[in-house]
Amino acid sequence: MRADSTRRYQAPLSNSLVEQLANRLSPQADKSLVTPQAGERTNARSDLESSGLYAELMSHAVGLPNDVVFAQMITSQIAGEGALPPGLGLDADDFASLLTLHYPGVELVVRHSLYAVDPRALERDDVLALLLEHRALQNRSEEWMAEVVTNACMANDHLWQDLGLWSRDNLSQLMKQNFPSLAAKNVHDMKWKKFLYKQLCEKEGINACRSPSCEHCVDYLKCFGPED
Questions:
Q1: Which of 24, 173, 192, 207 could be joined to 197 by an S-S link, Cβ 3.0–4.6 Å?
Q2: DSSP, res 16
């Protein structure tokens, strides 16, 4: 790639288990227990699709399944949308490898957050392990995706918004491509963040729901309603 065609973008700095799982699923969960990992704003698509960065990334995309969704996430994060930290929460080497694999020739200047003790490390590890257990085993990109989705699960809004995606359909496609056996279990199209934590609760033998049947639960819409 010629040097004059490589763009540099400066990313902004981030603002820096059982009970936790139950709190996640409970409709009355204490929001003070949920701390976003970057920024308070959630995703607003606006004109990001036509932004210079998104166009640059996609002009270098190699045609892998995650090209579009990673480009959306990176563009949103640098624009201050969504809840992902700089570099999507990946370490510097992994983020550089992601760019090389998906968008060879694109260079991004990212100031990664300094390491800090994570009070939700056990929860984070459980979410990550769940995703990795169900990955499609097609390429390394799925491992990065598992880390990125885990990072977004630590924030407050709908998962597709916290990821900086531009629609819930993008998230559903992401899950099917990267974690197909897990996505196949979401037969009733449950909200994805709720679904992931419900899977963890079931593995631990926890029933955090008020009703034995989703169809007759008074909180049905909190788990299955629109995510706009």
A1: 24
A2: -
Question: How many CA atoms lie less than 13 Å away from 129 in the CB half-sphere?
Answer: 9
pLDDT band at 131; cut points 50, 70, 90: very high
Highest-pLDDT range among 35-44, 96-105, 216-225: 96-105
Looking at the 3D structure of the chain, how many domains does it have?
1
Tokens at residue 113, please?
């957050």
Q: How far is CA 41 from CA 29, 85, 163, in A?
A: 20, 12, 12
Widest CA span of the chain, in angstroms? 61
174 contacts 66 by C-beta, under 8 angstroms: yes
Residue 149: the pLDDT is 98
Average confidence (pLDDT) over 140-157: 96
- Residue 28: which domain range? 3-224
Please classify residue 19 by burial: count the beta carbons closer than 10 Å to its beta carbon, then call 0-12 exposed, 13-18 middle and 19+ buried.
Answer: exposed
- The rounded distance, in Å, linking the Cα atoms of 195 and 172 is 12
Determine the pLDDT at residue 40: 37
Neighbours of 173 (CB within 10 A): 17
**77, 192, 92, 97 alpha-carbon torsion, rounded to 10°:** -100
Encoded amino acid at 106, one letter: V
